[in-house]
Amino acid sequence: MLHSPQSDDGRGLALQVEGLRLSYPMADGRELAVLDIPAWRLPAGAAIGIAGASGSGKTSLLHLLAGIERPTAGRVRWGGTDITALSESARDRWRRLHVGLVFQDFHLIPGMSAEENVLMPAWLDHVRAPGRLTARAAELIAQVGLNDQRRQPVARMSRGQQQRVALARALLRDPAIILADEPTASLDRDGAGRVGNLLLDLAGRSGATLIVISHDQDLLARLPRQVKLEAGRSLAP
Ligand SMILES: Nc1ncnc2c1ncn2[C@@H]1O[C@H](COP(=O)(O)OP(=O)(O)OP(=O)(O)O)[C@@H](O)[C@H]1O
Ligand SMILES: [Mg+2]
């Protein structure tokens, strides 16, 4: 079961990356090569940490895996779906269905409360969030330790509080794929431990495939596998 490529019942999806390259045009007309990953595979339900120096391409990689950006070349397959072959709107739909993404810079809506931000993904699909999602949002907000702040606009929250709202939002719909970009960067040791517990427990229980980018040695050590990205290279297949 662990190696099945696809599941439609909440379990993780396997990842298969081939010939993945990302480059950006520079001001002088040359190309800046950001990522070059010939092959990389993860079985469904795997949990892995990615470390690497600032600028090594970690966030770029996560955005390619989430289908937010398109690679310059290569394929990203999740389960049976080659997301690089999808149109932008099909990728957006695919992402809403399968991916919980914790952005490095949170991407919260400042004027909305913690609760409203967490429910935001549900509002994209329903005019009103179904009761079970409202209950799930409350549960996640409590689990990240923000029960008392749930009605507060996120603009008036600390960065660490905002980071926890972003995590709760990513986990709202029990995604088959959880991608987290330095999810403990703004937290103290206690908060980081709590976020680590939540990520690992939830992924473990639901069987989601979990990819965590981090510099946090405690968090990395809790993941069964770690890899290092060096100048956009060397993720072992
Ligand atoms: N839109 C863009 N246009 C041009 N260059 C970009 C763009 N986005 C990222 N880059 C470049 O790609 C490289 C990798 O950036 P990325 O944000 O993926 O690094 P990172 O490993 O996540 O770093 P950090 O640890 O600081 O978050 C950097 O050299 C960055 O300048
Ligand atoms: Mg980054």
Describe the structure.
With 237 residues, this protein is an alpha/beta fold. Helices cover 34% and strands 23% of the residues. It has a single domain, classed as P-loop containing nucleotide triphosphate hydrolases (Rossmann fold), CATH 3.40.50. It is built from seven helices and nine strands. Helix 3 runs antiparallel to helix 4. The longest helix is centred in the C-terminal third of the chain and has 18 residues. The structure holds adenosine-5'-triphosphate and magnesium ion. Magnesium ion binds next to helix 1.
Task: Write a short abstract of this structure.
The chain is an alpha/beta fold and 237 residues long. The protein has helices at 58-65, 88-98, 114-125, 131-143, 159-171, 189-206, 217-222, and strands at residues 15-25, 31-42, 47-51, 73-78, 81-82, 99-102, 177-181, 209-213, 225-228.
List keywords for this structure.
single chain; 237 residues; alpha/beta; Rossmann fold; five-stranded parallel beta sheet; four-stranded antiparallel beta sheet; 7 helices; 34% helix; 23% strand; globular; binds adenosine-5'-triphosphate; binds magnesium ion
